[in-house]
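As a warm-up, study this chain.
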Amino acid sequence: MEDILSPNRINYFIHENTLIEEHISGIPGDDFLKSDIHHPKTNKTRLAKEFIKFNERCFYTLLGDMRSYNYVIEITHDFDDVQYRIRSIDFDQQCYEGRKNFYLPQFFKENNTLVKLSLEILNEKSINQYRIEERSRLVRRIKHSHVMLNDLFQTMEKETLSKPEKIFQLAMELSKHHQDPGFLECKNMIDILRLNLHHLNK
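Now compare it with the structure written out below.
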């Protein structure tokens, strides 16, 4: 899912029932927020923008538990400035939890520093603009890789990804969030994920 729908490519090997992913390089998020974020050369505007985009991706792809110790900050030098990319390093809470806010990094106290930074630097109009831009990118990735994505969904449908009570809870909360009763008809996490991605166009 991360390889298909995020801007990050991940190399991995598969052997029988085991998947081994490559090491994802970067500064651990919790370490970065303790020290590096306060460095005078840190481009806080770009960092805030990236957090908004990361928050949006996690929500629509149902990637949960993105506390600061479950992602890294990848820094790429760009002439006299730097680019930031927040990359997940933990995917075991994909399509599992029942609480909607579990899929929104902004609600974890471990990310409060980034949340506060984003609200201080970006106004509401800018935040909404970056959210819309990231949703548009997700739509393009879905269109570009729809065959591969559907194959992945078909495989995921054969697995038990979550518990019935969590599926019911998430369907209820997303139905209220999107104002869409269609979520109440979802039978599993993949039904919910498909419908959640469908709302990218709305």
